[in-house]
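> run fold EGF-like domain-containing protein
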Amino acid sequence: MDMKVFIDVDPCVSSPCGEGTVCVSTMFAYECQAATTPATGNSTTEVTDTSTMGPPANPCEAEGDAYPCHELYGVCENIDGTPLCSCYDGYDLANDGVTCMAHLNCSHCENGECVISDAGAKCVCDSGYMQGTGEHTCEDINECKSESSVCDVEYGECKNTAGAYYCSCITGFVTGGNGLTCQEYMDTATDDPEETTNFADHDEPIEWKIARKVIIIITVVTLLIVILSIVIVVICCRCKNDDKVKEKPNA
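> ok
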């Protein structure tokens, strides 16, 4: 709880009354009364000069070193001529009632970094986040809702994530090198056996290439041998049949 402190300054210290009068101090004012008569020892009730200080001067209007509160972060409130100091948000008033000290409470700073400076403690948000409604909160920036689309306007789709975003493309398109634009998908597959073989040869190790060629050669030779054997068998069978046909009439 804040406690207001009032300081009663005696205005008679500066001897504001003239000769033959006595300064009598009152609350925030003074009166000049006639001095006691030496002959009788009695005081007169006649007031020869009555004066008041009027409204006390405003100490909060002072400048420079005369300013009663903290020069940078202090707030001065004039209470009947007495300055009452407080501090801006983010600062605490020290025990002397004048100095303002940075409030170092920055315990909760999610998605940001707590930075302490002369201006106090505050959250500096990470990339992709912005200052939230609370003093120490950081909220995600939805880049996909920005006025200027970050992805391909015609074929792209923006996907927002926590602290970031990414772009995807509709069917038939792929993202470009920068990840933002969309390019039409070109199918490089071909039905040409020669081109297919060349593509495979480019990717395969040399050992696989040699083994594959050897297998192809062996397979071709084997097929030729089988075909040749079948042809020979067929020819032999026909020759035997012809010989049998020729032998029957002679018998």
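Helices lie at 193-203, 206-250.
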